[in-house]
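Sample entry (155 residues):
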Amino acid sequence: MSFDTPVGTRGARLPAGRLFRWFNKLAARRIRRKGGQMMGLDALVLTTVGAKSGLERITPVGWFPGDGGSWLIVASAAGAAGNPSWYYNLAAHPDQVRIEVDGRTVEVVAEQLHGAERTEAWQRITKASPRFAQYQEKTDRQLPVIRLRQKHSQA
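Predicted structure, serialized as tokens:
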């Protein structure tokens, strides 16, 4: 499936800047060291390849359980009109992604959910964390739901 969510025309301010980058580094370090949660959500460290730079980028994100042992993440940017930069990194390199979760590093492939799959996942996500429904209300873009599936080794 394609990564095709356009930016919106309204929404919250897109988190950015030095303070935000510092917080992300601190949160990633904490998740790696202690695992667990961030802002009340189960959290993982997402490593992507920059869409423009080609450099590795690390972002802590909340996750939800998906089908078949997959992980679901939402490109909410707290309801901003724009997608977070990691969304574009996944779109450019969906097969060059890894996550750190529960004390292990996992190579994954990213895919954006659409249609009935997205609707079902979105209902589970907003039931588990109503804040995501509030993020959706802030913007006119449909918040992308991304499924991360573990890569299978070719032995």
